[in-house]
Here is the input.
Amino acid sequence: MKPSSSAVPAEERGASGRDPARSVLRFAAGIAVLGILLLFLMIIAFALPVFTEQSAGGPFSRIWAPGQGQFGIQAMIAGSLVLALSALCIGWPFGLVLCCWLFCPVNGQSGFARSARSIVGFLVRIMTAIPTVVYGFAAVFLLTPLVRETVGGTGFCWLSAALMLAVLILPTIVLLLSAGLAPRLERLLPGGLALGFTRMDLMWFFVLPEAKKTLFSSLVLGFGRAVGDTLIPLMLAGNAPQMPYACSAGLRTLTAHMAMVTSNEVGGAAYNSLFMAGALLLLINALVSLCACRLECSSRQERKGGRR
Amino acid sequence: MKRLISPLAALLVGASLAATAQAASDTALDAFKGQKGTLDIAGGTAHIPVMKKAAQAIMESNPGIRITVAGGGSGVGVQKVGEGLVQIGNTGRALKASEIEKYGLRTFPFAIDGVAVVVNPGNPVSAMSKQQLKDVFAGRIVNWKELGGEDAAISLYVREDGSGTRETFEERALDKGTAMQGANVVNSNGSMKTTVAGDRNAIGYVGIGHLDSSIKGITLDGMIPSQENASDGSYNVTRLLYMNTKGEPQGLTKLFIDYIYSPDGKKFIASSGYIPLDK
Here is the structure.
């Protein structure tokens, strides 16, 4: 690089000016892809021996009792799925209703209702930035005594964790839904209002039935968020390594399990079973992301098609 | 309100303690001046907090020294130090005669790890027998009424597998038994304290150094859990924590062991919830 760039003719400068930027981008993308590939490779490489050396107390058995040589993580798999699904069952309808409320003000509403809407909309956006440990900590002091008194048990249970996870995934769901639903509603508004429909009618009869993919992708991403969270189940779900059987009983998720065991073990069968747990989590989340990606792409095409 | 303030206060006290420890440690750390090299430590998990704090203090003041601390359990500690893979192998039990003979190990007990059974201060029950304790943790006694308390279901809290506190508790208080699968699991002495302090029907256990007014220690078979009783042996849900070396410790290994016995080391031992021992 001896001549300075100003001495180079214009066309060449254009080409060479693009090149460094492009190579930086390629480099960055390459590192990201490589990182993900390495992550998969490492986890699978560590999990494979555990998978192939199936013994009586291996990771796919039911009981976790390292003292007795049993390293089953079935209960944790069930715990993760059940907890994420139940959080979704609470959080998703809430998110949908909240989203409809935010976008469908009744005609001639008071100033109070309008400011309430903007405050809630603002709060939902703020909620995305709250670390989960804050939710967990607050719930330990505020939610668990309440749950203990109403449903019995210790308060550290399926129900407490599901409620807090629902709160955690609520903003994700609301933001995804509003990104998908608001443009559709906007397009229908002038004509729809002129025909005498209210905004809520338009949302309910025209937008929602046509937006199945948006609804589904918010479900999928909400699930991914719920299944991947560690601190809320760790702090609230009780962590008993048993099959979830009642909403007042404890359960243990894969994430909380990994957090607990890694703090004490280095090497050994208990440690190795963690790679199995990690591989499973990775698999679940990869599937969720792929699912969401396909939905996103096809709904984008659908939107483009609709506009034409 | 009080409950919210006390963690804050604990944080502040902790921070000021750390500051004083920093000031005092300059003298005990002098021995490491000009030293270079690597020291590898492995073994018992209960030892890890003490080892890590000491290692951090040493490495901060002497960048030429690298100390690694790993877990693995007592068995791993003996095996690794015996085969020369690490310089210090930690165990939460005395060495067996066969181990000393096979590897030529030297052992250094440096702390007492005692575990106290705790309940909420509002619970009228304050004493039980070991048999009752075993029944409670096995799920055979499920109501406080059976122990002379209120008519309320017992909430069981235990520590996670691999925790040193759990190991001591199950070995010494449950006579190598284990708690039922449905018990809630918490992952530190601190969170055990907050949980038991917040649940009137709770029973759990903490390292004896973590006992304070927010929880109530249970008198077990007439033995009152306290630091003093644990050090003079009148409370026996305890064990010693050992560092082991292959042959007489030399160089950096010797300096490290001496540092653990120094006033600084004792501070780290106490802040990890154990009772320091003299060499």
Summary: Chain A touches chain B through 35 residues (CB under 8 Å). Residues 28 and 34 of chain A are 10 Å apart (CA to CA). Chain A has ten helices and two strands.
